[in-house]
Design goal:
The chain is mostly beta strands. The protein is built from no helices and 14 strands.
Amino acid sequence: LWSLDGKLLHTLLGHQDAVRSVRFSPNGQIIASASNDKTVKLWSLDGQLLHTLRSHQKVVRSVSFSPDSQTIASASGDGSVKLWKTTDGKLIQTLSGDKESIAGVSFSPDGEMITAVSGDGTIKLWETKNGKLSRTFKGRERGIRNVNFSPDGQIIALAR
């Protein structure tokens, strides 16, 4: 962690392989890191490890916090999206993904939907309250790496 004046604040040590994604929680109290070691780690701002989230069978490529910072979603090369409680690191549910690796995941601004995109361009939307798959549609291109909702939750942007 670095301050904007270039001072090293903390080094987060704990993953056994490369880190693929890092995110701050919306409330600014937690940092999540996703790794090739198949784990997500939750850290405090002072660099202390809070929880290690283990359940994925392959690399974890992306993480996203719910707007209230109570839930984190992780997307993996194993084709799943998993939802976890940030308070205790417990697995809430696994959303059936795809046979393809999930490249990116994002909560909607209101926290009611989660979207995930796989490398083949398949986009899925789930309802967060019950984990129901709401919609699946096919993007136009392969090699999609990330997904994000617009601030009003009406548009999804994909990155390749």
